[in-house]
Each structure stands twice: as structure tokens, then as C-alpha cells.
Amino acid sequence: MSNPTTYGPGVQKYVDEARKLLAEREEVLRRAKGWKFDTLAVHGLYSLEEAYARNQGSVIEPLYLSASQSYRDADELEAALAYLIPTWCYTRIANPTTYYLEGVLALLEGYKTGTDTSCCVTASGMAAIAMAVDPFLVKQKDGEKMNFVSCIQVYGGTFQQFSLRLGKERGVEVRWVLHPDDLEDWKSKIDENTRFLYMEAPSNPQQSFCDGKALADLAHRWEIPFIVDATCATPALMRPVGCGADIVVHSLTKSITAGGTAIGGALISRKPVVTKVRNDHPLFKESFAEYVKFLPYRDLGPAAAPVNAMFALNDLRTLRSRMDLVSRNCQAVAEWLAGHPRVYQVDYLGLPSFKYHPLAQRYMTLVDSDDGAGREVNRYGHLMSFRVDGPPANARKVFDKFRMIYRATDLGRIKSVATIPAISTHQQQGEEARRMADVPPQLIRLCVGAEDPADVIADLDQALATL
Ligand SMILES: Cc1ncc(COP(=O)(O)O)c(C=O)c1O
To answer: What is the model's pTM?
Structure first.
């Protein structure tokens, strides 16, 4: 909140009144920070006090569908629009239901990292990525050349946003790293005009991984932020701010809203982020997600729909136990596929033979679990891919024969879903970019759901048997 001294006494009255609410929120936050991950995910920032004081005792967070908020008089309106009091104004700017989702995501992503975080929820994962990277791509002087360094193994939509929207249309150079575990490759691509490092871990669909701590350290040596898309891990399995990442983005559409009923995204930032980009707003460095929320989000309009925030909130409550279950199911399916004679490659972080397994083993663990010796157990999520023997037509044939597994450009579901990325999610980027990103047409991406894995295996078995 900014200094209210230039405002009239009527405005000051509302500022004083808001102190009570702010103190209440501080107390809720303090209490929540003492909770375990599951308790946080279930309750977040919505408290008994809030239920009784403002929401008629509603057990579940209220869903505010109203596009706007009404004020009691001109003084309150002025205080609100000057951001002097907690307010939501208008759903493009903020919304109470979205506020609860932002609060809980910030806490979950910062859980046990010793780092304070803030969050901005957006209409989709793509919007979250745009909101996360754009503020760093502002020219500081005329004629300046800007670049950023990203792993090439990213979701097809991200590839398009980076290479077309930023690269071709805005002239920002994208420097692709082909092997994200090769630190020397990252190092060789950074210079004084590099604005950030970007990684998708694990990547969709290749399951690429990186040494997050080494990349965060490298980025910080150049005074630039390290941005990670951790959609496929979720905070239940990995919280990149713990190893130094500055900003984490998620497509909430995936495992976080596993029920498959909503599109959404989130960007979560550590407080503060590292950047040498000059920006006069104090929140830019101190609380980047809040900065995005207050300014670019308000001005560009990628607001989340409150209904979608509600769906995400509800699915999020069981995130930890669900990620445990679907990870174990995926492990069983991946092991079975790895032994199938018609499958020539299985990419899954949980397979010891997979090249990124040792790295993932260091970073991906089920939060608050215990292996009996005081360590958290490894879990690797529910996304995997496998490559079918022979020409691409074979992969299509197997794909067409699934009887229970859904064929869709979707992942993170409670139901098993498969796609062929070369003809769907990664179709637009073209053959050359697919070859560089290692997305051949023989590759079937499979996201294993919460069904009994024996039934998923039976479906795969009958489909592969048709070859
Ligand atoms: C890793 C990853 N990031 C971002 C996105 C984009 O998310 P959304 O579809 O919610 O815009 C996707 C979508 O598949 C994804 O897989």
C-alpha cells in the first residue's frame, strides 16, 4: 500500500478500517506457515474467522462471479483504486476466489524452501509464461539487442510463443540449448544482453531435466532470473525456488486441476527476484508476481475466470496424495513398456536407465513423505513417452486401438490420456525443430491417470498386440 498522507480524512477512515483486516490476514498467513503441505493445500488462506465474519459460515471458499465490486462511497472507491486498502475492484484486476488460489499456490510453492513467494493466477498456462517473461524484455536503451536462453525441449505452445511471437515478431533472439544437462552449453550462450534463462522441467513430452541449482547460480552470476515451467512436477514433487529459481510457472490446466474442468495458469516468484532490468516500481524486484498482478496483468487482461479458480482450488486440496498415486501408477506402466518387444524407447524419469534419472532423483521427491530413514521418497510424476518400433504408421495404429486410454492433446488428468506430439502439440513447430527437440513421429506421449495400472497395461497390451 502506498503512503495515504495526500488523501482526505474520508479516505483515511477506510485505510484505518482496513488495518484490522490486514492484521487478520497476517495472522492467517502466520498460522498457515506452520502447517504441513496437505493442511495448506486443503485450507490455504480461507479460515474459520473468514467463513463466519464474511461468508455466512460457508465451509468452502465462496465463488464470486460478480465482474466488479461496489463501494460504500467516493472515499472508499478512491482508497480502493489507489490500492490503499485490500480490494478487488474488478475481476480483470483481482477477484476474491482467485485471491484464495493465489494465496495457496504461493504457500505451496514456497513450502520448506525458506523463501517467501507471491503468486499471480492467469487465464492459462500460456498467459502465465507470457506474463513471466515479457517484463524482462523491455528495451533499456535504443538499438539494444536482447536475447534469452531456453532449453529447446519445451511444450509446443511455448516453442511457438518464444520463436514466433518473441523471436520473429519482436526481434528478441532465442538461444536454444539442445541438452539441458550440459552446463557448458548454457554458459556459452549467455552474454550481457541475455535477459533470463528458461527451463521446462520435466519437459513435455521428452522428460528433459536440468541441474536447477547450477542453472540458478549461473543465472545469478549474470544478474538475470532463472525461470522454470514446473507444470509436470507440481509443488507436490518439486519446488524450484528451493534451489534458487526466481520464477516458477504452471499450467494449472494439468495435474493441479486433474479433474479436467478448467484452463488456468500461475506464476509464482521468490521475494526478491534477481534482475538487472531497470523498473521504477518497487515490487518489480521485491515481489515480481504482485508487480505483474498490479500492473501488466491489469493492463493486458489475461485474467483468470473465478469459476476456473474454484475448480483448481478444489482439485488442489488432494494434490500430494494424488501425485503419489499417479506417479506410482506411471512407474508401473513405464516399467512394463520398457520390457515390451515392440517398444524401442521409454522416456520416464523414474526409470534408472533413462539419461535424466540421476538428476531427477536429486530434485523430485514426494513432499512430506518418509522412506523410513528420514528422507523423502522419489516420485517422478505421471507423464512419460514411449516410441513404437517400425515406421510412424505403427505408432498411429497402436494409438488408434486404445479402448480405455483417451486420445487427446491433454495431460495431467485423473484419467489416462495419450497423444502423438509430432501431429498434435508439436505439429506447428515443423520437422526441423521437432528433430532438434527430439520429438519423432514414433513417439506416443502417455499421461497415466488414477486407474488401476493393471487396466492401463491391459489396454496398452492389446493395442501393441495389433502390430
Ligand atoms: C509444460 C506445459 N507448460 C505450459 C502449457 C500451456 O498451458 P495451457 O494449455 O494451460 O495454456 C502446457 C500445455 O500443455 C504444458 O504442457
So the answer is: 0.96
